[in-house]
C-alpha cells in the first residue's frame, strides 16, 4: 500500500526535479509530486526532458492534466514506464489556460467525463491513480455533492483523493483561488468517516509539521505546498515524527549535498541557476540567511555557492550542524502507516 502520510504539493515552476531533489535531502519519507504536466506535452513533447528524474526522488508521483481519456491513459502509461510510483489527475487548476484547454478544475462540471478518464487511466497502469481536486466549483459546493464525486471516481478505480479543501472560483485569478475561497478541512474529515476504505489527503493552508500532525489524526495524509517552498526545513522533523526514520539533516548538510548535485548536473549541461534558484530559502530565518540569498541570486554560479557556503559555515559554525541520529525509541513515536491512524 502506498504511503501518503505526508507529501509536497505539485507546484508549477516550483516542484521541478531540482527542487524535489532538495526536498528529498530534507526528508526521505515525504512523497513528492511533479509540476502539472499536460498530457499532450508527454505524448508529443521532449519526453525525457519533461519526465526524467533522479532515482532518489522516489516515492514520486506524476501529475497529469488533460481532458481526453485515451491521451491521458497513454500519458499515464508512459509515466509508469519512466518509473513513477503514482499517476495523479489534476482536477483543481482554475487558470484561464486550463479552462480554455478544458482541463483542471473545470472538469468537475462534467463528472461523467472525469469518471471515463479515470477508468481509462486505471486500466492503463498498475501504479495507483489518484486525483487532486477541490471541494467543488463557484462557491456552490455542498458536502453531498462532494461525496457524490468521490463515490463516482472511486467506482472508476481511484483509491487516493487529495483534496485541496476549498472550492474553485473560475472567475478569480489562480493566485486568488489559493486564498479567497474558505478552507473547510472538516469536509475532508467527514469524507474519511463516510468512505473509510479510501485514502484521503488534506491539502490547503497547512503551514507547519505540528498542524499536519494534528490533521493526521483525522485523515490519511497531509499535503503541504507553499510552506515547503518558502522554507524546506518545515519538513526537518518529518522523518522522525511521521515516518520513524530517525534521521534529521542539517541545513548545512543539505546545502553541501546540493553542491555535489549541482556539480553533477553541470556536467549534464544544467545551468547552475536552475538548481540555485530553489536553494534561496534554505537558510531562511537563520544567521547569514539573507546574505546567502543575495550571494546566490547575484552570482548564480558554483563559485557563488561556495562563497555563500563559507559564509554560513562561519556564521553557524560546525557545532550542532552535523547529521543528528535522533533519540532512541523514536520509531515508536512515529505515526502508524496511512489508514491506520484514523
Ligand atoms: C506556484 C504554485 C503552483 C502550483 N501549481 C500546481 C500544479 O501544478 N498542480 C496542482 O494540482 N496544484 C498546483 N498548485 C496548488 C498547490 O498544489 C496547492 O494545492 C495549494 O498551493 C494549496 O496548498 P498550500 O496552502 O499548502 O500551498 C500550485 C500552487 C502554487 C503556489
Give the oligomer, counting copies of the same chain as homo and different chains as hetero: single chain
Q: What is the H level of CATH, i.e. the homologous superfamily of the largest domain? A: Aldolase class I
Count of spatially separate domains: 2
Tally of DSSP β-strands: 9
Mean pLDDT, to the nearest integer, reads 92
What global shape is seen? globular
Structural class: alpha/beta
CATH topology of the largest domain: TIM Barrel
Uncertain residue segments: 319-333, 338-342
What's the helix count? Answer: 16
CATH class of the largest domain: Alpha Beta
From N to C, what is the helix and strand string? EHEEHHEHEHHEHEHEHEHHHHHHH
CATH architecture tag of the largest domain: Alpha-Beta Barrel
Strand order of the largest sheet: 1-2-4-5-6-7-8-9
Distance between the termini: 16 Å
Quick summary:
Helices cover 43% and strands 12% of the residues. With 342 residues, the protein is α/β, with parallel strands linked by helices. Strands 1-2-4-5-6-7-8-9 form an 8-stranded parallel beta barrel, surrounded by 5 helices.
